[in-house]
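step: validate -> pass
step: tokenize input -> pass
step: predict -> running
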Amino acid sequence: MKDNFSVQSAGYAQFRPTYPSELYDFLFSLLSEQHTAWDCATGNGQVARELARHFTDVYGTDISQNQLSHAVQKDNITYLLQSSDKSTFEDNTFDLITVAQAIHWFNFDAFYAEVKRTLKPFGIFAAFGYGVMQINEELDIIIHKLYKTILGPYWDEERKYIDQGYHTLPFPFQEVPVPELSIKTSWNFEQLIGYLNTWSAVQHYKKANDSNPLDLVISDLQDAWGDAERDVTFPILMRVGK
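step: predict -> pass
step: emit ->
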């Protein structure tokens, strides 16, 4: 599994969008028990925090100590520095296993073997994430230019799974139909720039060119954005199985 996010862990915790309650309500509706949950590649712990509201014990794992250092702390969350495809958990431990905006970085075969080993017989596995945001036509064109034209060569190969809506992920589970959901939030311009700076391709570009690619579009973004807060929508990608 790649670690593309340790460098910008603080920004990741501050600027990444959060998933709506409807997503969690859907997942919880599928469960027969809510005792123990595992959030893989937990990052800043945003999903673990929500699971902790409903489960007795929650475990969050990540390969980045820097990410875990910025993670949300709760009495019933235990964070562990370990890879999701080589866990130390016992067989048949979890009612729910989640992985948010990270499964495309995994060794699928090894990870799925761990999911099947540690999931309870009636447990649920959910992989979810989000695609490129949508704001309005003018801003979307500029962001698409940044995403595709400027940063295209700097995205990791695994990013294709997000671009393909997670539909092409290998998924060796009995699949559960999922609702169409989205993340809806309201941002000011500083939040937009903060979020864009968390893109892994931005970090790759900086390393290769010793400059920030946002400098190539920030003036156009500012002109199109104006001074007001704007509604921002991210389409949610989700695969659920048992």
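step: describe -> The longest strand covers residues 119-130.
step: cleanup -> pass
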